[in-house]
From TrEMBL:
Domain of life: Bacteria
Keyword Transcription found: yes
Keyword annotations from UniProtKB, A to Z: DNA-binding, Transcription, Transcription regulation
Protein name as it appears in the record: FadR/GntR family transcriptional regulator
CDD domains, alphabetized: WHTH_GntR
InterPro entries attached to this UniProt entry: GntR_C, TF_FadR/GntR_C, Tscrpt_reg_HTH_GntR, WH-like_DNA-bd_sf, WH_DNA-bd_sf
Domain HTH gntR-type: 1-69
One Pfam family matching this protein: GntR
Gene3D superfamilies hit by this protein: GntR ligand-binding domain-like, Winged helix-like DNA-binding domain superfamily/Winged helix DNA-binding domain
Amino acid sequence: MAVTDEAIEKIKGMIVSGALRPGDRLPKESELAAELGLSRNSLREAVRALSLIRILDVRQGDGTYVTSLDPQLLLEALSFVVDFHRDDTVLEFLAVRRILEPAATAMAATRIGEAQLDVLSSQLDALGAQPSVEELVACDLEFHRGIVQSSGNSVLCSLLDGLSGPTTRARVWRGLTQEDAVSRTLHEHRAIVSALRDRDAEAARAWATVHVASVEQWLRSTL
């Protein structure tokens, strides 16, 4: 095992065991290096790596702290990673979204409030019948984010947020090249809102599946 990897594992072990808790300040570099049997250089590299993935927070002039370890914070790194996808892997991201988003939409059916449903309807009304592709995609992102947040599962919400990057590109491409994409998207969005208002989890799940699958099917036929 590389020296830096060993240092990362040892710090991880302290956090997992509870020796270091969310919000705790790490001991001074010299003390922690001695305690873990590491060189100060390898410890420094480990801290830098763990700060990049939001495990540690390095505060200049103050010290290094364990972050809140909140799932949303930790999963921010996912969106960075998926931005490096190749065109032929967009389908794989869409396939994952097709599994997760309908589940989140079904969960939201029993939890979403009337006020949030009104917001969703207002977003669709504000678009009008012929929005630009850019307006449609921006609304699509906010529309689904609002629903997923209502599922009550922050991990699911963060995962789907992270998957939006590559699928957004596919949505724009589809909107520019498929004539009925705009009207179909608006129809599917309204059907999802209707199912949520009826508190019909299975109908909401079905419409969300149709919505994601239609993008996936179209993209599969064009690649």
